[in-house]
Amino acid sequence: MSHLFESLKMGQLTLENRVIIAPMCQYSADEGAATDWHTLHWGRLALSGAGLFILEATAVNPTGRITYADLGLWDDRTEQAIAKSLAVARRYSTMPIAIQLSHAGRKASTQKPWDGGNIIAADQPNGWQPVAPSPIPFTLDGPRPEAASIIDIGHIVADFAAAAKRAERLGIDAIEVHAAHGYLIHQFLSPLSNQRDDQYGGSIENRMRLLLEIIDAIRAAVSDKITLGVRISATDWVDGGWDLEQSIILAKALTVKGCQFIHVSTAGLSPQQQIPVAPEFQVPFADAIKHAVDIPVIAVGLIDKPKAADEIIATGEADAVALARGILYNPHWVWHAAAELGAQVTAPPQYLRSSPHGMPSPIK
Fold first, then answer.
1. pLDDT in tens, 333-359
2. What is the pLDDT of residues 105-139, one digit of tens each?
3. For labelling, which of 1, 40, 42, 149 has a CA lying 20 to 30 Å from the CA of 95?
4. Is 351 a catalytic residue?
5. How far is CA 200 from CA 45, 89, 133, 158, 252, in A?
6. Number of other CB atoms surrounding residue 91 within 10 Å
7. Domain span including residue 190
8. Catalytic residue among 68, 183, 200, 351
9. Is residue 261, in this structure, part of any structural domain at all?
10. What is the mean predicted confidence (pLDDT) over 188-204?
């Protein structure tokens, strides 16, 4: 019996299986609004057979975008654009859909990755002034972000709550707060980027404060029907930075606040990071956090072999696995995994004839 294709309870959701599509930026929005590209992309992945589809990092305000082409959810226009694209994806799929709410902080105002990803100065077209916990640039020779004031922080917390309320209105099933990969919340968590001397800096309790306030604000803004979780980077891979020990403290605090899952990644905060990249290299971090909390933990990072993914679940290292680049490359990865592991996934009847010759159908 495949462990990967067992159901999983996550807050109010019951996932059909434990394969999750990780959020992947598409850099294809129009001033924050979803476009026809999102309709095509979301529709394709909604037919993948995964247990949950998390939409890409979605900025809670315009200055929280990584690039000028990032998806956003901060006004009626951006909400209506997402609604339009989601309607097509949902027409032929009952897969639960989550959204990742995000603020880029000092990593904002850049070119698209395929255009070089360079910083765009605030006085140039498609550029703006990034904010951060402290005026410390991402790169040594990069522009200095503006330190967020207490008033700024209050506005950011309110923006997360407002975006969450819009997400529920869109019929989104779950919200993932992006506290990983060197973006604003992660910048507040890490002592490498947070050198404040007020209630948001210094001790780990102070550095966690922004994220915990955001969780409180979202929980107050949405109903109990919404499953709420957080994505973290469990380590900066830099000496003196955010690490696993602090991540476990944070994970425990998040469970107290009512978080219902933790998605465990790593890195993204500093160009000085030294990452030992290898298949499943981040799984030990998920394993350590899973043994510290009693809510579902998602592992991610170069998990591209079905048997390896199944083993992660079978051994209790994580409750679910997330795929990103692997499922972009092969949108039918879940079908192939089901065939290899002797399981079944839900797919449109139009595709039932695609079952490999001589094998039980992996799709139903």
1. 999 999 999 998 888 888 877 766 444
2. 999 999 999 999 999 999 999 999 999 999 999 99
3. 1
4. no
5. 39, 40, 8, 16, 19
6. 9
7. 8-354
8. 183
9. yes
10. 98
